[in-house]
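cron nightly-structures :: item 1 of 1
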Amino acid sequence: MNVRRLIPTAATAGAVTLGLLALSACSSSDTAGRKGDGRLAVTASFYPMQFLAQQIGGDHVSVTTLTKPGTEPHDLELSPRETARLSQADVILYLKGIAPAVDDAIGQSGARQIVDATSLTEMEHHGTETGHAHEGDEGHGDEDHEEESADGNDPHIWLDPVKYAEVAKGVGAALEKADPDHAATYRTNTGTLVGKLGALDTAFEQGLAHTATRTFITTHAAFGYLAERYGLEQEAIAGVDPEAEPSPARVKELGTIARQDKVSTVFFETLASDRTAKTIAGDTGLRTDVLDPLEGITAKSKGSDYLQVMKANLTALQNALGAK
């Protein structure tokens, strides 16, 4: 499985607002791309964008998602028919860099309004680890599987409720511009969702305030923003495919980190094999659990939507970190 986490240079915060305002939008009388029932036709690239569109758009939007449940969005490629359908969307919501083939198709789609989530919040560089610097680690030498682009930005902004709320506000503004007739509803729904994300942020902040350790180990370096937000340290089995065996050097290093930082758990994700996590756990005497990067909702997910799965993630982190 390709685990590239590529992201291009993000726009500055100032350019965000200007860029959003400059986007072309269909007027309320322009129904060329609308569903037959008059709803706004929104195409989302993957689940985090789908959730925002559904929560903010409500009954006034019809949401199509490019990434089917259970599919890794990073591996997504579109069929000619799916590519052709992009031009019919009133609004496309995507996160540039997650799936390069999709980015190309969206750029050529001619859709009325295209919203890139990376332009709606400040992107940051987390590298493959958060909190520890390790010299001479041969387990990080495979440049073909980096989780970042040359500019070093981490794409996993939706796993920080605060940043996700910033993206939600931008999506709300885009829907208002595309469908002025229902702007008041979009504004209200955006406020409601931002409130829920604020409550989630508070739950994480309070729930992780006092723990026996601040370090967690994960097979997927997706949680840099979350770790930074709540003062945690992410140790990823980084630079390797989740299906591959970790290097002996990295296994030894993680064992040392686990002992020093009283780590109890190695986390794996729902859309990838747990083999690497179990290898590390077996070699270090740790247990395994799921920390869901929420790239998609499946029958294995611990919840039916973003908010429920994030609360399950909080519980998993509390258990792993020894919350008091």
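cron nightly-structures :: done
Residues 1-33, 128-147 have pLDDT under 50 and may be disordered.
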